[in-house]
Every structure is written in structure tokens, then in C-alpha cells.
Amino acid sequence: MDFYDTASSAPCRSVIMTAKALGLNLNKKPKNLMAGEHMKPEYLKLNPQHTILTLVDNGFPLWESRAIMVYLAEKYGKDDTLYPKCPKRKAVINQRLYFDMGTLYKSFADYYYPQLFAKAPADPELYKKIESAFDLLNTFLEGHKYVAGDALTLPDLSILETASTFEVAGFDFSKYANVAKWHANVKKSAPGTDENWEGCLEFKANFFS
Prior knowledge:
Blueprint: E1 2-5, H1 10-22, E2 27-30, H2 41-46, E3 54-57, E4 60-63, H3 65-76, H4 87-118, H5 124-140, H6 154-169, H7 177-189, H8 193-207
Parallel strand pairs: 1-2
Antiparallel strand pairs: 1-3, 3-4
Helix pairs in contact: 1-3, 1-6, 1-8, 4-5, 4-6, 6-8
């Protein structure tokens, strides 16, 4: 499987951790966004949306990290641990993945990206949305070891890379007790966390140094 990525991209790291959990090898083909490599015709043929991460599995191209994670788990999982077949459990897992995409990670992008890429001033109203997102995550984790129950599943990997990116950006989520406890636990137990952290440090060096 070819995997077009960049190490500092948070969504790329969640796919890498998923592949590690499934025992899959990815043929990484790093792309340089600053050089516009994601806008070249050969890449646009694979991914017309030209987002940086794209998986090509035997000629089948797919992008959006959470869609790729589900695809890999369903196709290559030796069991259904990461993405259970039970409709109710799967529904909760999907909700958490969508929460990460549309609320938690979005709050990071909305607050930090204008500052990093457009030199805009920090917006306190957008910061409040980050706090609200972590409040929700803290509530999801009440009485649970993992974000979708009591076993490690796909949203733990997706939300781990998001939370780790917040961490290197300087956001302190230690006051969210359930989140802090989950984060400390999943960093030790999830596959591929070392590589995730290396990517986080690269992101920090590129944008927050």
C-alpha cells in the first residue's frame, strides 16, 4: 500500500498508528506541501481534493484519515477489536470519530491555523470552542477507560493524535481529569505512539518553535 503523507500532519499519524495496530506495512511517499507537491497533476488524479494524506491499496485510492482507518480495520483486521461489528458499538465509535473530525480537531484548526498560516491574532471565542470540545471529551470518558468504551478502538488513535497535537501547541488539558488520565494510558498502550510523538515534535519544531 502506498501512503502519501507528511510526518507533521496529525491525521496522517492516526493512519500510521492504525496500520501498526493491524500489522500492516505502509510504503510511505512523503509530500512537501510547501513545495506544492500535493497540487501536481499526478497527485490530483489520485486525490482531486488534494488533501495531503492519500492511501492507494492495489490501485484503490482513498483519503480522509478516519475513512482510511475504518477501511483498513474492516479489510485487514484479524478480528473486530478496533472496529467492532456490533451495530451499537460501531455507532458509538463512528460518533467519536465524527466528533474528532467535526468538533475536537476542527477546534484546533479553527483556532491555531489562522495564527500559524495567516499571522492572525488569537481569537478568544475560538479558544472557548476548544475548551468546550475538551469538556465534551471529558464527559465521554466518565466511567470509561477509552473514548468509546472499555477497549481500545479506532477513535482512541484518532483522538490521541489530536490531543498530542494540542499538547505540543501548548494547550494544557490537565484540568480535564478524565482526558488527562486517558491520554497518559493510551500513550503507553496504543501501537505506534512513538512515531506519533516524533511527528508531533516535528510539527512543533516547524510551527511553534
